[in-house]
Design a protein that fits this description.
The complex is a heterodimer of chains A (233) and B (116). Chain A has 233 residues and is mainly alpha-helical. Chain A is built from 8 helices and no strands. Chain A is globular. With 116 residues, chain B is an all-alpha fold. Chain B has a single domain, classed as Helix Hairpins (Orthogonal Bundle), CATH 1.10.287.3510. Helix content of chain B is 66%, strand content 0%. In chain B, α1 runs antiparallel to α2 and α2 packs antiparallel against α3.
């Protein structure tokens, strides 16, 4: 009973804290100075149509590097903790006929869509993280359809390490080749505005991020499925 | 108006998530509550970056520069926050799996080691 009163009290108090935003809230009518610079100068400076991508990959690229690192840490910790507690492998029921056929049909299409999303990250809504998550969802489908199939982490960790390493190398190349330094996207020509191969380094970095996030999330899913890494993919 | 609706939705989601975390005894349900909490905070952050009448900050033609767009910075921040939230959720699920392997149950009341 006391517990319930405390829970109610806590929810009401949190609600009061958050509610204090509401009466004074007005939608902005103009952008703050920094964002206004991003929106007005961004397309000319970086050549990216999607300003969010420009902010994520270039203006605040260091944050994204940290974000990718945290995701790497999360997937490493998941692999570590699950691996320590490996118990005897129980046979699990295979997915139904419908699920298996559907997986065979959809798996390549979902992969293709994931790749489309991260390659077009600088033009349309989307990008490396979103594309990577879509690729991982294809792996989820695979795991659901064949829960007993062993998938090795070997290839996934090679893709992940290589793309992460190349990302940092390309970022460091900006220090030597451009004025603005680390993670500047202008070490490649900006190209024609709005075409696929434009915006300098942004599509390259987002492809690497997409591969890295995709393989990381896939290895999280495979680890959570609880299979050991006895066979290579 | 749109911004206010988004703000209130976000606040409600945060409260529902908090309620879910505090009242459920099942660990998986607590994790679901955490995810709701997370989404609520993201919506609150997005509502702060909303500009009345603005559209998504994707500029298809260079001639569209100068039109009204919403703030891209909170959107980029929320993208980061979603990814971090995903990492944390995977971490919590791993703990849930490990706890289940130890005791064969997901009821939080059965784990008494740290209870005082």
């Amino acid at each position: 009973m006391v517990k319930k009163v405390f829970i109610l009290l806590m929810i009401i108090l949190t609600g009061l804290i958050l509610w204090s935003f509401v009466p004074g809230y007005e939608s902005r009518t103009a952008l703050p100075e920094v964002s206004a610079h991003y929106v007005e100068k961004g397309p000319e400076e970086l050549g990216a149509a999607n300003i969010v991508t420009a902010v994520v990959v270039t203006y605040r690229g260091l944050d994204t590097l940290g974000e990718v690192t945290i995701l790497f840490a999360a997937s490493a910790v998941v692999g570590l903790l699950i691996h320590l507690n490996k118990n005897e492998n129980k046979r699990r029921r295979e997915g139904s006929e419908i699920l298996r056929t559907g997986t065979a049909l959809l798996f390549p299409l979902i992969l293709l869509f994931g790749i489309y999303v991260f390659i077009n990250g600088h033009l349309t809504p989307g990008g490396g993280f979103q594309g990577g998550a879509i690729i991982a969802s294809a792996v989820v489908l695979q795991v659901l359809a064949y829960p007993n199939r062993k998938i090795g982490h070997g290839l996934l960790s090679v893709i992940e390490s290589l793309s992460g390493f190349t990302y940092v190398l390309l970022g460091a190349a900006g220090v030597f080749l451009t004025v603005n330094g680390f993670l500047d996207n202008r070490i490649l020509p900006l190209g024609e505005y709005g075409s696929l191969l434009s915006a300098g380094l942004i599509p390259v970095i987002y492809t690497l991020v997409g591969l890295k996030v995709g393989s990381e999330l896939s290895s999280v899913v495979i680890s959570l499925n609880g299979e050991s890494e006895e066979e290579q993919l | 108006m749109t911004g206010t609706i988004a703000l209130i939705t976000g606040i409600l989601l945060v409260l529902i998530g908090l309620w879910g975390i505090l009242t459920n005894r099942d660990i998986i349900r607590m994790i679901v509550g955490f995810s709701l909490f997370d989404v609520g905070i993201h919506i609150i952050m997005l509502s702060i970056g909303y500009v009345a009448g603005g559209t998504a900050p994707i500029i298809e033609n260079l001639s569209d520069i100068g039109k009204s767009y919403v703030d891209p910075v909170p959107q980029a921040l929320v993208l980061t926050a979603i990814v971090i939230g995903l990492g944390i959720t995977a971490f919590m699920l791993t703990y849930a799996v490990n706890m289940y392997e130890k005791k064969g149950t997901l009821e939080i009341d059965k784990f008494e080691e740290l209870k005082w």
